[in-house]
Structures are given as C-alpha cells and as structure tokens.
Amino acid sequence: MNINYKHLSFTFCILSFALVCSIAHATALDPTRVGIGARSIALGRTSAAFDGDISALFVNPANAADLPGLGFDSMYTNLSEDINYSFIGVARPYDLGTFGLAYLGAGSSGFQATTIESGRVVGTGQSFDYTSSVLNFIYGKNIRPDLAVGANLKMFNKGFGWVSNSSGAGYDLDLGLIWRPKKELTVGLAQQNTLPASIARIKWGTGLEEGIPFNTKLGLTYLPRENILLAADLDYSANSPLALHGGVEWQVLKWLAIRAGLDQQATSASAAITNYCAGVGFNYQDMHFDYAYYYDTILAETNSAHYFSLAYLFCEPAPLPKPVPVPEASPTPEAMPQLKLKSFSDVPWGYWAKGPIEELAGLNIITGYPNGTFKPDKTITRAELTTLLVKLKLGDLKLTGISLFQDVNPGYWAAPYIDKAVEYEWVTGYPDNTFQARKNVSRAEGISIMARFDNIQEALVEEQPFSDVRFDFWAAGYISAAEQAGLLDYLKGRLFEPGKPLTRAEVAEMLYHTKFVKARLGKR
User: Fold this and answer.
1) Which has more pLDDT, 166 or 87?
2) What is the 3-class SS of 445-464, one letter each residue?
3) What backbone torsions phi and psi does residue 148 show, to the nearest 5 degrees?
4) What is the pTM of this model?
5) Residue 251 is inside which H or E element, if any?
6) What does pLDDT average to over the chain?
7) Which of 254, 280, 313 is the last residue of a domain?
8) Domain endpoint, select from 280, 313, 346
9) Does position 156 have pLDDT exceeding 70, yes or no?
10) Integer angstrom CA distances of residue 332 from 206, 325, 436, 523
C-alpha cells in the first residue's frame, strides 16, 4: 500500500492536538452523539469514516464531501421507554462543496414535580416536560481527490416546560477530515465541540452555565471484498476511557444488507461496557430504509432500543452542458466543414489552452455555458468525463432502465454513458459496487481514461515520465504512454501532480491531441 506519510502525519497531529485540548473541556450531554442513522448504529455506532453517507454527516461533516446528489434523511427511536428521539436533515452538493441543514430533537413529557416536606419527598401535583434539540449547519468539501474537510455549526436549545427560567441555549463547532489512501480504505477524523469552553457553553435562564463535552473520533472503513464492509471507530473524551466501536456489513443482494456490531460505552472515568447491535438495510433505487436493534447489557429491559431510518438520495445531473454528437466517420480534410472558432469571455487572449478550447468548441465537441463562459478551471466529475467521451463516439444514448452500480440510479442522466464506458473498459467502478459519479477526476485517473479512450496501450515504464510519478505508481504506464503520444505536452518541464483534480481546460487540451479528435479536425 502506497501511503502518503505527509497526510498521515497531519492526521495524527490533529488527533494529538484534540486529545490535549479536550482535557480542559467541561463534560455535559451532547444530543448529537445519538445523531446517526440506523445503519451506523447497527455497525456499533461507527460513523467517522462513512464517506458520502448522508446519515453520518452529523458525526463527521467531512462525510458530506462525496454526497452524490440532493439527499434527505430521517431517524426515529424511543430511548428508555420515555424519551422520543428523532432527526431530519437535507444536504446537497454544489460547486463550492456540500451544504446541509439538520434538526435533531429529544423530548419527554409527564415528569412529576416533587418537593421535600419533613424530610420526605412528596409530589406537588404538577408535571413538566423536557426537550433538547440541536440545529446543524453542515459543510463538506473535497480539497484533493483523496482528502476532504468539513465543519458543522451546532445551535443547542434545552428546556423544562412550566418551570420559570428553565430554558438554555448555546452553540459549538465540529470539524472533520476524510482521507482516502486507497479505493478500498477510508480514514476519518472528527473533532466534536472544538470551541473553547469559555465561549461555547449552554447558558440557562437561571444564570447557570453548562459546558459542552469535547470528543474526538478516529475511524476507518475497509472493503476486503466488494460486498463486505468492515468499520471501526475510536472515541476519546475527557474523564472517560477510550471507547472502541466496530461492525461488519454484508451486502447479500443489491437491495439487502445485513449488519452487526459491538459498541463500547463509558460507565466511569476508568470503566466501560460493551453493548451489542445488529440490523438490516433495504435499498430500492434511490430510497434507503435501515433498521437497527441496540441491546444494552446493563439496562436491557429499559434502554435497549429499535432505530428506524429512512433516506432518499436524488442523483442530480451535473451542470456541464451536453455536447453535440460528432459522427463516427472520420472525414478527409477536403470534406471538413469550415472551422469557426468560438470564443468565451473567461478564456482571454494568451490563455494557455485557448486554441484547443476554441477549435473543439467550434465543432461542438465541447461546449460552454449559456452565459458565454467556459469555466476552464472548473473541475470535471467522473460522470461528466465518461459522458463526454462516450458521446464523441456513439452520440446520444437512451436510458435503459438498468445500471451496473448501486449508487447510480437507472434514471440518472449519465447512467447509460457510464455503463457503456465500463463496457469499453475505459473506466471502472469501486470494489463496493459504486461508481461515485460526482467525484472529481484526478489527473492520473483522467489521463488513464483518455488513453484507453484513444486506444493508447499502457507503456512499459523504463524511466519516470515525470519526477513525481514513481515507476510502481498504478497509472505510470498510461502516463508514460500518453506523454509519448503528446497528450501531456502542456506539462513539459513541470510536475505531473497525479492527485490534482482535472480541469475542463486540461480535458480540452488532452482531447485536442488524441488520434480520434485529430481525425475530426483533419489533422495528423
């Protein structure tokens, strides 16, 4: 496994900082600690590294970065037979990142008020209610193809009904990190309630102040096989022992998953208990229903609970305009129509890829946006790139009602193009049977796809094509072959930076030098 030790060091530096800071932080109840979906609960309350899972955004906001489309999520349970707990949330990815909003609430009614008379506890005849809620503002973004960050601003509200000065409010901030060193491995780090206790406290009407507990979660998910998921989290809170959470998920069928896990909960500053959990998940197109049963080994009769989650994920079309199909036949230069260059307001004179962009746009091989811009520095997703390349050779395709991947709805606009690109072996999916259509394409991925599209055979790497591309790098053969074919002339004398997100301008530049497009342009 080729691990980026720079990222690994950075991750553990943040973890160490969190552990030190947490010692001085006050301890109190944070309702968002329950704010995960039934899938996570069935897996032992693991959730720190559930990249792209809408039900895990509240624990690690960086999980939001890879959300493939607009999503809704909800969960309900009854705790200790008295407290109803539920949440509802919505999140959507944009060019600037994924934004989400969620509400989590817990409450119970009918508590009997008491007083002490003559040394005895007696009822007053009055009752009151208790509520606790959190409003979450979530943000996550990929800063590299293998690295995502996130933040979650939380607004707390608590209160006792029919009691004067009995409400409290406050706020705090969560920070998150997701690192993907390998396709089958994801590492997550969540810093919950990171603000200092001096400014992030729950203030009650009585004048009392309550600290919000600082908690650090380090987790990972691993896919040893495409239908098996292993997950583990490690929790650290002040005045509590380390708590381990773990679980396994078996995707029996495309629509059915079975889960089981172990969850450790602290009972004192030095002791913890281990509880058991299990559950199932059902998927139908974009709808997901999850159920979890949590067995508390101490309070089995009163605190064991059933959790129900319902989520819906819309796979939305990306904003890239659809290119006009180009005929399959390669006309001779004499038969070529007169080329009309098309200019864009954000591709100025002297821009390094101005020529390829304008020539390809002149033949409608690529297109700009309705406002007259091309957005050359905008990144391109896996769905966009595969659709562009398939349309170049086959034109428009109709929806087939089927999809090869569990995270690609058969009705998704790019579904037939993705399936065709996989059939032609230009691109592959991930071991967990996902395609991650909205994930940005890196340079290494992009040039490998482009080389296979242009029938450029993987080269035997006898010397490094670029100083930052090792001989044993997975894409070194394609990078070397594409460099020899002229697709990477624009990077001569520079670093390749294989993990850097590919831009629209780079796609135009690479396409311009392929044999396929040269034939369309009547060039050799």
Assistant:
1) 87
2) HHHHHHHHHCCCCCCCCCCC
3) -135, 150
4) 0.58
5) strand 243-253
6) 80
7) 313
8) 313
9) yes
10) 85, 18, 39, 9
